[in-house]
Amino acid sequence: MNQTDYNDLKEIGKTRPVLENITNKWSILILTVLCSEPVRFNELRRRLDGITHKALADALKRLERNGLVHRKVLSGSPVSVEYSLTALAQTLQDPFNALYEWALKYGPEMAQAQLIYDAKHAEKLC
Asked: Left if phi > 0, otherwise alpha if psi is -120 to 50, otherwise beta: which for 28?
């Protein structure tokens, strides 16, 4: 594997649209949930506390368009839809799992840093 020279990012323009599609507000969380198993729309919505029906539907369409999510209509009454990762999206499992674990481990430190920052800057405003 080639070592990236972060001081010489000639290709950064090529990565921006890709990164924007997988790192927006809901995409990482949706793909992380789908890493473990295919999930139906309403179950996905329940597991993503705070996402609206429209935001989830839009994000899933975007992810499907980008070749990261497979949408399968399940017959039955009522008809339901199940989402799963494509082979392309499965290549993101390790990085997303690492981000998820990092967020769990270092989230409290970030929250503490935010409190310290806010307290310090609140004094300057008064």
From this structure: alpha
Q: To 10 degrees, the CA torsion angle through 24, 30, 35, 40?
A: -160
Centroid of chain to Cα 23: 6
Q: Is the pTM of this model over 0.85?
A: no
- Please report, in tens digits, the pLDDT of each residue of the chain (126 residues total): 566 666 667 777 888 888 888 888 899 889 989 988 999 999 999 999 999 999 999 999 999 999 999 999 998 888 889 999 999 999 998 888 888 899 999 999 999 999 999 998 887 765
Q: What single-letter DSSP state applies at residue 4?
A: P
